[in-house]
Amino acid sequence: MEKEHCMVHRQALWILCFHVVCSLSLVAAENISTTETTMDVNLIDENHHQHEAGSKWSPLFEDGPGPVNVTARIGSTVQLNCKIQLLYDKTVTWVHRKSDDIQLLTVGRQVHSSDQRISLSFRYPNNWRLQIVYITDRDDGVYECQVATHPPTTKKTYLRVDVPTVRMSVTGTGDVTRGGSDVFFKTGSTLEIVCKVVHAGSNNGSKVSWYKGPQTISTGITERTSNDSSYTTIVSVLKIKHVQKTHSGNYTCLVGSPSASAAVTIHILNGEQPAAVHDGNSGPLVCCVAGWWLLTLCCLVLSS
User: Fold this and answer.
1) Disulfide: which of 53, 106, 158, 297 matches 149 by Cβ 3.0-4.6 Å?
2) The whole model's pTM is what?
3) pLDDT value at position 245?
4) Which residue in 237, 242, 250, 265 sits closest to 190, CA to CA?
5) Among candidates 243, 223, 244, 242, which has minimal Cα distance to 234?
6) Is residue 202 over pLDDT 80?
7) For the chain, how many helices (H) and strands (E)?
8) Of the candidates 221, 230, 228, which has an alpha carbon nearest to the alpha carbon of residue 195?
9) Are 129 and 82 in contact (CB under 8 A)?
10) Within 10 A of 43 (CB to CB), how many other CB atoms are there?
């Protein structure tokens, strides 16, 4: 009887120990699972935020966040730098803002602008440089280099386009008659058209172009440039000797854009009067009108 009682006690003790061990194992397993879950959440959270704007792993601009001011001359080429560190797999875009107008220029290395003057001139290892050739006055405004973080990381460049003052004057040998923007020369004269361009600042390669109507002029041109502390002056002279009727036409000097141009109309006379040339067929028209009035007057007199 005593032996049976000891056996029951021993079995109960084994069962109790088994339950205690199982309970401790479950608690340990839960603790391990909780620790692993916490570590995983922390790791995911760190990976999720390491590229967010403002974090220690987020992309940053090598030359500082800006903004940057750039002045470009009409007709020149401008390059807007955007050097980015820690870019990883983020996308870079360029946007042009002017008043209420927003234009997407580039996404990554692809150009989205229809303007053929705009390109992405990437320079290894990290300069997402925007290039604009033959600058015009419509190119001024704010250019934003944006990195696709959340929120976007942005650097602004303010581009100001310098529009020069362009003036034109005409001189020559022989009889010269002027009438507004029209100048009259006799055949055989020597003609000089002077185009004076004044820029603010130093010269950066601006070019003066000459046209007769839509055709480019490349001969008979001389040019000189002078600089002082504040301005650059370019004087371009078109000289034509022994002018003929074929030299009549509209002459234009232009610096990169129609907004920086000047024009004059030259008439070469071969015995005509300036008024007749200027008015085209006005001479015959005046004669016809005078004749009509004279005929009408005669009819009135006869009828009376």
Assistant:
1) 53
2) 0.60
3) 93
4) 242
5) 223
6) no
7) 3, 21
8) 221
9) yes
10) 10
Tokens of 149: 């973080």
Which residues lie across from 163 on neighbouring strands?
Answer: none
The candidate with the shortest Cα–Cα distance to 129, out of 150, 111, 149, 114, is 111
Assigned token pair, 102: 């927003």
pLDDT tens, position by position, 26-47 = 444 444 344 433 334 343 344 4
What is the sign, positive or negative, of the torsion defined by CA atoms of 86, 92, 97, 100? negative
Q: What is the rounded CA–CA span in Å between residue 34 and residue 112? A: 50
198, two tokens: 């004044």
The DSSP secondary structure of 152-170, one letter per residue, reads PEEEEEEEEEE--EEEEEE
CA nearest neighbour of 70 among 125, 124, 147, 145: 145
- pLDDT, one tens digit per residue, over 221-239 is 999 999 887 888 999 999 9
Q: What is the number of other CB atoms lying within 10 angstroms of the CB of residue 208? A: 23
- Classified as helix, coil or strand, 187 is coil
